[in-house]
Amino acid sequence: MTNGRNRWRSHLDWLSNHESERMWNKPVLFHTRLDGAVMGTDQAWAASLRRTRHIGDFLPWKDHDEYQKSFERLLRDLKA
Predict the structure, then answer these.
(1) Residue of 2, 13, 37, 75 with fewest CB within 10 Å of its CB?
(2) What is the rounded CA–CA span in Å between residue 46 and residue 57?
(3) What is the average pLDDT score of the chain?
């Protein structure tokens, strides 16, 4: 049941972000991937997120170079 709640919460987060962007014409969230859930589902909200947003990949967090690359991209986006 927890997994279902997490998916629903993710969906609500996406809707909130989508509405914020529509109202302010500016992204307010930085999406990061800590597991494969968003890439492995066929839910419409996830497909839209994959098509329209960069999702920072922090799956290989044990690989210093890959982690550093993702972290630097996140920092660059936060500063923009």
Answers:
(1) 2
(2) 15
(3) 76
Distance CA 4, CA 80 (A): 34
CB under 8 Å to 37, separation ≥6 — which residues?
6, 7, 10, 46
In the numeric block, the tokens 């972290």 are attached to: 71
Provide the whole-model pTM. Answer: 0.53
* pLDDT over 70 at 70, yes or no: yes
- DSSP H/E element including 56: strand 56-57
Task: Count the Cβ atoms, other than its own, within 10 Å of residue 46.
Answer: 19
Q: For the chain, where are the alpha helices, taking DSSP H only?
A: 2-24, 37-40, 44-52, 64-79
